[in-house]
């Protein structure tokens, strides 16, 4: 490691560098050391094919992780929703800062809500989850596969090429300036439109044998409530064994000692979906169900009670809750809706 300077690896996009810059500033404050950005090009940045064809969101992480393992940088910043659930040997997610807005937004020219857009309106998104959710919200709409940076996506709406695009609220908030301009934003509530596991959160990754002072500085950036929530979300995804491009959503929120997890698996186009909404209480050394659980198929039907789980700490307990949610989704038939990696 260069004396006095920490090298932070990041994708080259404006959004990636903006969010990495925010982490760099915070790390400088807690470490007293200068942090410089090291731009790295990933396959996901150069290959314009659909993400589902080139390996899903994980294509954004591989080149960065390779650079870290080669010693070309000292740490990385990822959008957590882009990371596969398995962390490679030798690496560790050393910090998950407090999460930003986890919602999706629909961006249009005139502010017409998705459910009111006329038949045949074109909606830009390459996400299988978002495609399925668009068809649930308004079956008359037509989705168009979309890649590229935020500015290029917004420009396709402004030019009239598309009627709307679906984006992550957190990404828009992290960009400098006013990327929206005269366009209009509809926030999509998490109750009816849950988002990808980890959406809105950042992951700061380094090597498992990183210097103790770096690990300590990164630990100061970690937000426990966010880590607990995203651990549960990612455990749902891992338990479904279907990869980052699965048509599924999972969102968890910690309120006091109560962890609420909402997870839905979608059929690609016909509006069919299977979901669970469960609240459990985290206590030191154990996780106990509080009797608030709901299971549904296509929005109907109820289950009884949440499974209890035991964990040595809140993170382990959150992981077990997420795994239990995935197991129950599979029991309800979610496997029939999922591609498998």
TrEMBL record:
Known cofactor(s): dipyrromethane
GO CC terms, sorted: cytoplasm
InterPro entries: HemC (IPR000860), Porphobilin_deaminase_cofac_BS (IPR022419), Porphobilin_deaminase_N (IPR022417), Porphobilinogen_deaminase_C (IPR022418), Porphobilinogen_deaminase_C_sf (IPR036803)
Key word Ribosomal protein present: no
MF-aspect GO terms: hydroxymethylbilane synthase activity
Domain Porphobilinogen deaminase C-terminal: 229-268
GO BP: any one term: heme biosynthetic process
Catalytic activity, reaction form: 4 porphobilinogen + H2O = hydroxymethylbilane + 4 NH4(+)
Residue ranges of domain Porphobilinogen deaminase N-terminal in the record: 6-209
Domain of life: Bacteria
Region (Disordered) location: 292-312
Record keywords: Porphyrin biosynthesis, Transferase
EC number(s) per entry: 2.5.1.61
Pfam families from the UniProt entry: Porphobil_deam, Porphobil_deamC
Role noted for this protein: Tetrapolymerization of the monopyrrole PBG into the hydroxymethylbilane pre-uroporphyrinogen in several discrete steps.
Family per similarity comment: Belongs to the HMBS family.
PANTHER family: PORPHOBILINOGEN DEAMINASE
Protein name as it appears in the record: Hydroxymethylbilane synthase
Organism of origin: Microbacterium azadirachtae
């Amino acid at each position: 490691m260069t004396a006095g300077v920490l090298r932070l690896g990041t994708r080259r996009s404006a959004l990636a560098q903006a969010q990495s810059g925010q982490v760099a500033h915070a790390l400088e404050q807690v470490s007293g050391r200068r942090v410089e950005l090291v731009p790295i090009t990933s396959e996901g940045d150069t290959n314009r094919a659909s993400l589902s064809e080139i390996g899903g969101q994980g294509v954004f992480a591989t080149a960065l992780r390779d650079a870290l393992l080669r010693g070309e940088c000292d740490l990385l910043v990822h959008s957590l929703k882009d990371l596969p659930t398995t962390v490679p040997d030798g690496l560790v997610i050393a910090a998950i800062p407090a999460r930003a807005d986890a919602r999706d937004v629909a961006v249009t020219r005139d502010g017409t809500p998705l459910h009111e857009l006329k038949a045949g309106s074109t909606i830009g998104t390459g996400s299988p989850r978002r495609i399925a959710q668009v068809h649930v919200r308004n079956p008359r709409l037509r989705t168009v596969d979309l890649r590229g940076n935020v500015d290029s996506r917004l420009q396709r709406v402004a030019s009239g090429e598309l009627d709307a695009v679906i984006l992550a609220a957190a990404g828009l908030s992290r960009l400098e300036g006013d990327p929206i301009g005269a366009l209009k934003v509809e926030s999509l509530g998490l109750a009816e439109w849950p988002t990808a596991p980890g959406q809105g959160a950042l992951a700061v990754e380094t090597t498992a044998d990183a210097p103790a002072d770096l690990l300590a500085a990164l630990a100061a950036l970690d937000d426990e409530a966010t880590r607990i929530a995203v651990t549960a979300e990612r455990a749902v995804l891992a338990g479904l064994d279907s990869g980052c491009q699965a048509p599924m959503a999972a969102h968890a929120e910690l309120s006091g000692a109560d962890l609420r997890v909402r997870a839905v698996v979608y059929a690609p186009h016909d509006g069919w979906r299977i979901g669970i909404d469960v609240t459990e209480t985290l206590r030191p050394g154990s996780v106990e169900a509080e009797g608030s659980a709901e299971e549904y198929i296509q929005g109907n039907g109820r289950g009884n009670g949440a499974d209890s789980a035991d964990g040595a700490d809140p993170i382990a307990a959150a992981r077990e809750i997420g795994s239990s949610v995935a197991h129950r989704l599979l029991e309800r038939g979610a496997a029939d809706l999922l591609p498998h990696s």
